[in-house]
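wait is this the right file?? whatever heres the structure
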C-alpha cells in the first residue's frame, strides 16, 4: 500500500512538471507598444463591463 502511494505521488509530480514545462515552453512575445495598447484596451473593457467611467480620453492616438 505504501509503495502504491509513493508511486502515485511521484507520478503526479512528474505529470505536473510536464504540464508546467509545456505551458512555458514557447511564451508569446510582443513589442512594448503592442503590450501598452492591449493593456489600455483590456482596462477599458474591464471598466465598461462594470459600469465605471474612465478619466481618460480615447488613447488610440498614443
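ok assuming it is, sequence goes like this
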Amino acid at each position: 500500500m505504501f509503495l502504491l502511494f509513493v508511486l502515485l505521488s511521484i507520478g503526479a509530480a512528474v505529470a505536473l512538471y510536464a504540464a508546467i514545462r509545456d505551458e512555458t515552453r514557447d511564451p508569446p512575445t510582443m513589442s512594448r507598444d503592442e503590450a501598452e495598447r492591449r493593456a489600455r484596451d483590456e482596462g477599458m473593457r474591464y471598466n465598461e463591463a462594470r459600469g465605471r467611467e474612465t478619466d481618460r480620453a480615447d488613447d488610440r492616438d498614443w
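Helices lie at 2-23, 32-49. so i think its the right one actually
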